[in-house]
Specification:
single chain, about 280 residues, alpha/beta, Rossmann fold, about 10% strand, globular
């Protein structure tokens, strides 16, 4: 391990949720010179953690790091969409490199919905959820499947504090492409100041979606706060996920077209902002 760890973290994966950040975390943890905590730290977005101070945060990032590690970072995918986070990161570690994983926003929006459905946080159909989103955001900003897929607005918020040269963008579609992922990861390693010499590739799939058998039980558990009690939580998880049924229903062609049209101009703005070809999302 390097002697001076005062500048840690060297990088933070800030988003986007349901865009492959866990897959990227898995790859980086297979690099012997890079260390990240296995779980999200949630320092800059959760008041109870932020109040513990930056020393606490650095210790969380360094915890269980191997002797060989020289580059340290973390991944918390909720950082991207919260207003306060970019400023907090800059105030505490302005030299930190910011990493983003971008996914076709139509697919990300759908994945976000099913993630919340799986957790018991969403009971509406996908179509009703996205059509009622603006009104729901006014009542509770949590329900923002489409809004969190407008990437350029969230990136611009970070650009108020960090230069573009300090940011790195990865396309999810490139990262999971077996013919291209080596190139994608090698470029990222170079950006972080290392090489693929210490990297061992693994194609293991992370974060497979598994749907609950009785989503209403999870929804009620969240609403009543019962999910915070370990015994009740374990009972609900066992009830809903004992016999795993992976995957979720395909989006209707009509809804897909509607969302593709909705995101078109946003994608063009993103393309211009980060100077990246996003034509793969038009296919």
């Amino acid at each position: 391990m390097r002697k001076d760890t005062s500048s840690i973290p060297d990088f933070i994966i800030v988003g986007f949720m349901k865009s492959g950040t866990t897959t990227l975390l898995h790859h980086l943890r297979n690099h012997r010179k890079i260390h990240l905590p296995a779980n999200e730290v949630h320092f800059f977005d959760r008041e109870e953690n932020f109040a513990k101070g930056f020393d606490w945060y650095q210790k969380k990032v360094l915890k269980n790091s191997p002797e060989e590690a020289m580059i340290f970072g973390e991944k918390t995918a909720t950082y991207s969409h919260l207003d306060k986070v970019a400023k907090r990161i800059h105030e505490n570690c302005p030299q930190t490199k910011i990493i983003w994983v971008l996914r076709n926003p139509v697919a990300r929006t759908y994945s976000s919905y099913w993630h919340d459905y799986k957790q018991g946080m969403e009971l509406l159909s996908f179509e009703r959820a996205i059509r009622k989103e603006e009104r729901r955001i006014e009542e509770n900003s949590y329900y923002s499947h489409k809004n969190r897929s407008i990437y350029h607005l969230q990136i611009q918020r970070f650009l108020e504090y960090f230069p573009m040269e300090q940011m790195y963008f990865i396309l999810f579609e490139d990262m999971i492409n077996p013919y291209n992922n080596d190139h994608v990861l090698n470029k990222l390693f170079h950006f972080l100041g290392t090489s693929n010499e210490y990297f061992e590739y693994s194609a293991e799939v992370k974060n497979k979606t598994v749907l609950p058998r009785y989503p209403i039980t999870l929804y009620v558990g969240h609403k009543l706060g019962l999910i915070n009690h370990p015994k009740v939580k374990n009972m609900l998880l066992s009830l809903n996920f004992k016999n795993k049924q992976p995957g979720y229903r395909k989006m209707s062609v009509e809804t897909q077209k509607e969302l593709k049209s909705y995101f078109h101009q946003h994608n063009k703005k993103l393309e211009h902002l980060i100077n990246m070809d996003l034509s793969i999302w038009d296919q």
